[in-house]
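Why do we bother with a discrete structure alphabet at all? Because it lets us treat a fold like text: something you can write down, compare, and reason about line by line. To make this less abstract, here is a complete entry for PP2C family protein-serine/threonine phosphatase. Read it the way you would read a sentence in a foreign language you are learning: slowly, and without expecting to understand everything at once.
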Amino acid sequence: MTDDVNRLVAAGRALRTAAPHRLAATVREVLCGRYGAENAEFLMVDYALKVLQPVSAPTDTAQAVPVHGSAAGRAFGAQQPFVLEDDDGRAWMHLPVTVRGDRLGVLSVTLPPGARPEADMAELVELAQVLGHEVSVAERDTDVYHRARRRERLTLAAEMQWQLLPARSSVGPEYALGAQLEPAYAIFGDNFDWTASADRLLLYVTDGMGEGIDAALLTSLGINALRNARRAGVPVADQAALADQAVYAQYRGEAHLSVLLVDLELSSGRVRVVDAGSPRMLRLRDGAVTPVSLDAQLPLGMFEETDYTAQEFRLRPGDRLLFVSDGVHAVAAPGGEQYGERALARALTATRLLPAADVPAAVLRELSGHRGRPEPDDDALVVCLDWFGKQPTGT
């Protein structure tokens, strides 16, 4: 092995054997001891996607770095390394920390005068990826990284909802996904879930009725009932029927859960959809935005033993789907005008050049301007799915 390979292997071993709560300290020790860095800081993005906070000082808001308008935020948004140098030759290298498309934060490294950032760039990019993988494992055993994600205290309902969620972004050869919820620290009913296998991507977009803990409990029951049915291998329409039975058995029709169930076949782009409630879907194709027309069926839990049917359509490579809850399409401006599909179409067109992971936050910023105040009255959920099509396999 070369010295560089030995160094990277030793760095990876140090991270893998570190105590779960010491990953940020360990990567700093590795970078200072083996790479000659003056300092290194692991910053994690908060739930609202507005700031990057140092894991070493999560409660010190003065050390938080804005996602928009900062060097670290530039690396986070572009998902590319970004380097700044001063007149004395000192360099600051910002490296995205991402796991399979899930954007965790940024590793910021300070290099002394005379160092050559480009010499170690590829190696440090790989080290940042190793850090991301270790954080995703370590989170099972420590609250350190959950605390670093929050700029303020979560409500109990929001705590329950965030624990239900998968990653907020994900990528595969055929697709890219991004999602975001508002208000990030006080959500209660809206939720999303997804899972991918070798041949399918399944996505749920949910909107639970009620407020606070009641809404969070309803959504938790519904999501877990859907997962239980999905993991039993039943088709998407039967997943809806089984989850419907679970919700009805608990609430006897007094509470229901609106959900859009999407089953995407990765080999062909064939989509099977069950529309059981209020979430909406729009498609951007060749620059034109159109609502995807679906047959509305009953929300989960309204009546006993409801039957559901799936509709089918096909995606073309280059298609983008946008899913929104009623806290987006039904929100009213101060004058009473609903946001609606026309405004959503404008927002989708305006964000067409952004990657899927960035689209939900951009749409929610536009929505904030429409309603004329920063905080919504209802949960607002946006999910974006880009379809690239089946990619050729190497020989």
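What the structure line is telling us, in plain words: The first helix runs from residue 3 to 17. Residues 122 and 333 are 48 Å apart (CA to CA).
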